[in-house]
Design a protein that fits this description.
Nucleotidyltransferase, domain 5; 2 domains; 5-stranded antiparallel β-sheet; 8 helices; about 30% helix
């Protein structure tokens, strides 16, 4: 199997990873399998109470087929189909084909300071409501671990979204953990009196679930898989969450529903 085939498979996995994260699923071990003129990628998928696997096949004509498997197959298929408009079927008889994936190299991220950065107003057609603070995370590339950053935006009296905080870019971070850290970052800023809001929103079911239960359920080894700065952020978040009044904080949180309201206004636009 050529390196180009593997790039295509990993690019498709990167596209699916965010869709699955929106539905509360976390990617686990990833294996690329050489099938001669074909290529296949297997990735474990874990949800709160379900687990399964997703297979991505690249055929001879450059067509990509997605096959969810395991106890979470139906939920995985629904998560993917609900967002990209394709009818993904769990477990063969027939895998469902999607257009050929393209592999685009992400821009090299510039490291930003988390403080002293001027706020900016973001152009967005998505309407907000007074007092809303929305957070989101972005991870570059299709691999499970990669450059990661997050930010928060508020809806202003001028009917626009204004960026009010922005993390540094961590060289080796993780998307679901980044979504969780974005929530914690916002809470700690509110606690320090730097921000005020009526509602704190995230589009990540996984991150909200971790906050509600007080347990970060991840399959990765943060200390070894992630860079030191990102691992420190995760440790600090765990410590803060252990002493926080979670019911009080969770009472002011809500999920940003992209199907009803449109794209998350804090989204980085790298899909």
């Amino acid at each position: 199997m050529s390196g180009h085939v593997e790039q295509q498979l990993r690019a498709e996995l990167g596209r699916l990873e965010r869709l699955l994260a929106h539905a509360g699923f976390l990617l686990g071990e990833v294996r690329v399998i050489d099938e001669g003129t074909w290529g296949r990628l297997d990735a474990l998928v874990e949800g709160t109470n379900l687990a399964g696997k997703i297979q991505i096949h690249l055929g001879k004509k450059g067509r990509v087929s997605i096959v969810p498997q395991g106890s979470a197959a139906v939920a995985i298929a629904a998560a993917i189909g609900a967002h990209d408009g394709s009818a993904v079927s769990p477990n063969p008889p027939r895998p469902v084909e999607t257009p050929r994936a393209t592999c685009v190299s992400p821009p090299t991220p510039a490291i930003r300071a988390s403080t002293g950065r001027p706020s900016t107003t973001r152009a967005s057609r998505v309407r907000g409501r007074a007092g809303e603070l929305v957070v989101d995370c972005s991870k570059f590339g299709g691999s499970l671990i990669g450059p990661t950053e997050w930010r928060g935006v508020v809806y202003t009296d001028e009917a626009a979204w204004r960026e009010i905080f922005h993390s540094p870019v961590y060289a080796r971070g993780h998307n679901n953990l980044g979504e969780f850290l974005a929530i914690i970052d916002a809470c700690r800023r509110i606690e320090r009196g730097e921000l005020t809001c009526a509602t704190l929103l995230s589009d990540s079911k996984t991150a909200l679930s971790w906050f509600r239960t007080g347990k970060i359920k991840t399959t990765i080894d943060v200390e070894s898989d992630c860079d030191a700065g990102f691992a420190t952020e995760v440790r600090d978040a765990r410590e803060w969450l252990n002493t926080a009044d979670r019911p009080k904080w969770f009472g002011m949180m809500s999920r940003w529903d992209t199907s009803e309201r449109g794209e998350n206004p804090a989204d980085f636009g790298r899909k």
